[in-house]
Amino acid sequence: MMVDDGVCGRDPAVRVAGAGNDSRSDELLAAGRDPETGVAVAAVGSTGIAGLEPLMLATLDGETAFFSEMDTDGVRALVEALDEGTLPTDDAMAVVEHEPETASLPLPDEGPLGVGERAVLAGCGWTVPTSTADYRDGEFLASETTADVMGQLREEGLRGRGRGDVATDTPVVEEWETVAEADGDAVVVVNANEADTDAEADRLLLESAPFSVLDPAFAAARAVDATDLVIYVNESERLARERAKTAAQTLDEAVDRLSTRIVAGPDEYKAGEPTVALEAIEGNHRLESRRTPPGPSEYGVDGRPTLVHTPRTFAQVGRVLAGDDLGGVASDPGTRLITVTGDVTSPATVELSTDDGLDSALSAVEAGGRSLACVGGVFGGLTRTLDVPANASGLTGAQLGTNGVVELLGESTCPVAFAGERARFAKEENCGRCVPGREGSNQLVNLLRDVYEGEYKEGMLRELARVMRETSTCELGRDAPRPVTTAMDGFGAEFAAHAEGRCPTGACDR
C-alpha cells in the first residue's frame, strides 16, 4: 500500500529511509508497495547516516526493526510477513520498542543511530518529509506565534548556526529586533546555499524535514512583520528545492499569505556568505560581499530589512517556539549538527548537545588511522584532538571553526600541504571585493610556497593572518588563514622540516 500523506501511527508500516536520493532506494520502495496488502509503505528522508542507507524500518505493534542491507526480494518478503502479523527480526541490525504514535525516529542503544540525540533531527528518516500529518499533527508553530517570541528568544539566548547565518554564533534575537524596528517591508531569507560538500546538515534538514525549517521561518516572518520569504538553495540541490517548495506552499495556504519564492544560487563557496546571498537573490551577475554596516538586518534584499538564517538556525528556533527544553550549555543552548567526513567509509551527520564533547561524534563512522582533523569546514582549524566541547565558545577557544564539520585526515596527510591547499582555495574562491581577502589570500599562497623553497617566514604568515582576520569584508577572508595558523601552531616541526627540504609524512615527496 502506497503512503505519501503520512506514516506516523500507521501499523504495520515500512519506511524506506533515503528514498529519493538514489535509484537503489527507489527500487526498494517500488518493490515494497503492494496494493494487495495492508502494509503502509512510505518514502522518508535520510537519517543522516549515509552508510546505512537505503535503510528499511519495519514497524509492527510499537516495535521497529532496522535493516541496512536488503534487496528487492527481501523487501517483498518483509512486507508479506508484516501483512501476516509477524515482524521479522533475525537479520535486523537493531530492534527498538517505542510509542506507536511517535513522530521521532526510535533510537537504538548502539550503532551510528545511537550517537548523540535527535531533537532537530527527530523526523529525519522517520516521517514523510512533506506530510503535514507527520509534522506536529498538522499544528503549525507559525499559526501560534505571538508577539512574545522575541522575549522567548532573548530568554533562551539562542545563537545562530552555520557560516551562512547573519547571526553566526551570536544571539539571534538581536537581528530579529533590528529587522522588526527598521523601516520598510521586511524579508526573511532561509539561506541553504552551502557549496561545501562536507557540510551536509542544511541540505539534510530541507530534504528530510522541511517543515522543521520552514514553519519557524514563517513564524519569524510573522514576528518581524515580513511580507516576503525567500528560500535560497544551491542549483544542484534538486530534492531539497522540491521538498522546500512543497512545504512552503502548504504553509502559505495554511498559515499566512506570504510572497514566497525559491531562488537557486550558484554552487560556489562564496555564494553562501550572507551578503553575497543577497546579491544572488537580487539577480546580480557579479557576486561580491557587501560592506557592513549596515548589515542585512537594516539593508538587505532590495534595500529592505532582511533576516538571514540557515536551516540549522531555524530548526533551533522551532524548538524554542515549541517550548522544548533546549539543554546544552547556558552560553550556547541547544544542539549542533556535526557531519563527520574525510577519511571515513561514508560520512554521517549527527546531533550533539552543546555540552557534549566533539569526539563523541566519531562513533557514527568507520574511520581508518588518523593523526589529525580539520574542524569547522573548508576553513576550519587543524587539530590533533577532538576532546573539545561542541559549542561556540569551546570550538573558537580551541581555534577551530563552528560550521559543523569534522574532517578526519589520514596518517599520510601532510599538514603543510593541507594548509596550502586551503589557502589556494581561498585565492580561487574569494569574491575579490576587498584587498585583504583578494590580495591576502594570494600572499598566503606565496608565503606557503616559499616554505617549500627553503624559507619559513612564520612571523610574516602570522601578521598576514591577523590583518586578514581583522580587516576582510566577509567571513571568507576572515576565516581563510585559520587552516594555516592552526597548522603552524600544532605542526611547527613539519613546517621547519619542509624548509629543510623534507616532508615527515612523505606525502610531498611523491
From TrEMBL:
Superkingdom, taxonomy of origin: Archaea
Keyword match Metal-binding: yes
Keywords: 4Fe-4S, Iron, Iron-sulfur, Metal-binding
SUPFAM superfamilies given in the database record: Nqo1 FMN-binding domain-like, Nqo1C-terminal domain-like
Molecular-function GO terms, alphabetical: 4 iron, 4 sulfur cluster binding; metal ion binding
NADH-ubiquinone oxidoreductase 51kDa subunit iron-sulphur binding domain boundaries: 416-461
InterPro entries named among the record's database cross-references: Nuo51_FMN-bd, Nuo51_FMN-bd_sf, Nuop51_4Fe4S-bd, Nuop51_4Fe4S-bd_sf
Pfam families found in the cross-reference section: Complex1_51K (PF01512), NADH_4Fe-4S (PF10589)
Sequence similarity: Belongs to the complex I 51 kDa subunit family.
Classification via PANTHER family: NADH-QUINONE OXIDOREDUCTASE SUBUNIT F
Protein name per Swiss-Prot or TrEMBL: Putative NADH dehydrogenase I, F subunit
Species in which this protein is naturally found: Halococcus hamelinensis 100A6
